[in-house]
Automatic annotation (TrEMBL):
<feature type="compositionally biased region" description="Basic and acidic residues">
    <location>
        <begin position="229"/>
        <end position="241"/>
    </location>
</feature>
<feature type="region of interest" description="Disordered">
    <location>
        <begin position="221"/>
        <end position="252"/>
    </location>
</feature>
<protein>
    <recommendedName>
        <fullName>BTB domain-containing protein</fullName>
    </recommendedName>
</protein>
<feature type="compositionally biased region" description="Polar residues">
    <location>
        <begin position="242"/>
        <end position="252"/>
    </location>
</feature>
<dbReference type="InterPro" id="IPR011333">
    <property type="entry name" value="SKP1/BTB/POZ_sf"/>
</dbReference>
Amino acid sequence: MARPPADNSNQATRCPKRPIIKAEHLRETPVKIVVGTGDKAATYHLPPTPLKVISPYFRACLSDEFSEGATNVVHLRDANPAVFHHFVAWLLRIHDLGGNLDRTKPLIGLWILGDSIMCEDLQNRAMDVMRQLHLEYSGHDWHASAGCILFAELASIVAHTCEGSELSSYAMDKIAHAMTRGLKLRELMKSGAYWARIPETVKTEIFLRYQHYVDLGSKDSDPAQGEGCRYHVHDDTESRVTSENGQKAGTK
Ligand SMILES: [Zn+2]
């Protein structure tokens, strides 16, 4: 899959990034995007270039080969209008994801939206903001609560992401880590029906990760800690390696 063109105008910015919105984009014939279905559907009119730059999905469906490209209308039936609203504000640089958004659930929704429209930058920004938020929890008594919140969202994460996704990997790590810091298994299992919805493979994975943190002992580090590309989605290994070295490709 081809990656969006490199944003050389803003080389100091670390992964992830938003496209630069230029005045001419706002003069483009907008694309009509209908998000959701029925009474709750929301309609947006957005400039096509930033959408195409950031998302191979939009790039493909707004090409002449697809009916959306001809009609200039895209339906995102499975997307959540409230989540899409945050994506639009981020895309148009009205505010960053961290700005008006400080809860785990909408960040998970943004990550899943990014997955469905193939927007890695949105997924990675949502992940960075979420980890930062959870790091702030760990300074308080609520240390285990990020693990609790993620556990409550785990069934939804598993249902909406591919096996081995970076989001489910982070959620499993964070839950396992919280179990070493006081999050009791019996608390997790309180809701028997919910626990039953979690696939066996995921439960096993959480126990393995828990064991890993126990083995690490004092050397363990909170999955929310650290910067760089940990838990990022990158289909381009080379760019991940350069970002992990704190440099974007092309800055050397
Ligand atoms: Zn990255």
